[in-house]
Amino acid sequence: MITIAVANQKGGEGKTTTSLNLAMGLARRNLKTLLIDMDPQANSTGIFLNPETVEKDLAHLFQNSANIKDIITPAYNEHLWVAPSSMRLAEMETVSVNSVEAPYILRDSLAGLKDFDFVIIDCPPSLSIFTVNSLVAANFVLIPLQAEKFSMDGIMGLQQTISSIKKRINPDLEILGALITQLKPQTLLTKTILPVLTKYFRIFEHTISDGVAIGESHLAKKSVFDYNRSSRQSQEYEGFIEEVLNELKK
Ligand SMILES: Nc1ncnc2c1ncn2[C@@H]1O[C@H](COP(=O)(O)OP(=O)(O)OP(=O)(O)O)[C@@H](O)[C@H]1O
Ligand SMILES: [Mg+2]
């Protein structure tokens, strides 16, 4: 079981889009995949499940009234399961912070789920206890980010959090790489920023360009592959997933 946390504390960098398409892309390759929505905004939950029919979500796990097996719900691909979130999860933040077990809740719950090939965790836009739980539970971190000035500014904070979790709690945690999302046609900005980024992280060769297929697929509550297989972003995410799988074979 390989667990990948999709993290970046800055908002809107493409965490949810990347998590849901990576999870569905793996499921479409017949790999049994669990998508964990660690964000109380519940954006990835809403793509695959009807939030009104969800009875138990990650808030119940964090308040210790359910285990992960009670929460995970099949999505519309037979190999894909979702651990849903809800606004109630935000309330758990202060409750859990007071407990010594707080950083380990997700990791301990995943120990009971051996039969998945992949677990993909969509993190919230903060370095909250939920991001910490995700980094503690993960083998790898994947960082989606835009090639923009403000996206660069937050990177040190994320790197420090990853290093301190690696040092204190999860020595095996590795940065899988950074995926450039929402890439605009080659501008001076992109040309200046990409070379700087490579000093911080391994950057995936595949990048995801900015295009309407992504927003439309979210509206249609589908992965980009199910929404428009021939769109440029669908092909780019396919290439990225192949690159991830090749990297993991090394
Ligand atoms: N390749 C793309 N092309 C166009 N729009 C995109 C692309 N990727 C993401 N977006 C849009 O950018 C916005 C942010 O994307 P997304 O929700 O995936 O980011 P996020 O990092 O999960 O955000 P948050 O921090 O709020 O959780 C969304 O409106 C999404 O539709
Ligand atoms: Mg998100």
UniProtKB/TrEMBL annotation:
<feature type="domain" description="AAA">
    <location>
        <begin position="3"/>
        <end position="175"/>
    </location>
</feature>
<protein>
    <submittedName>
        <fullName>Putative ATPase, ParA family</fullName>
    </submittedName>
</protein>
<dbReference type="InterPro" id="IPR027417">
    <property type="entry name" value="P-loop_NTPase"/>
</dbReference>
<dbReference type="Pfam" id="PF13614">
    <property type="entry name" value="AAA_31"/>
</dbReference>
<dbReference type="InterPro" id="IPR025669">
    <property type="entry name" value="AAA_dom"/>
</dbReference>
<dbReference type="InterPro" id="IPR050678">
    <property type="entry name" value="DNA_Partitioning_ATPase"/>
</dbReference>
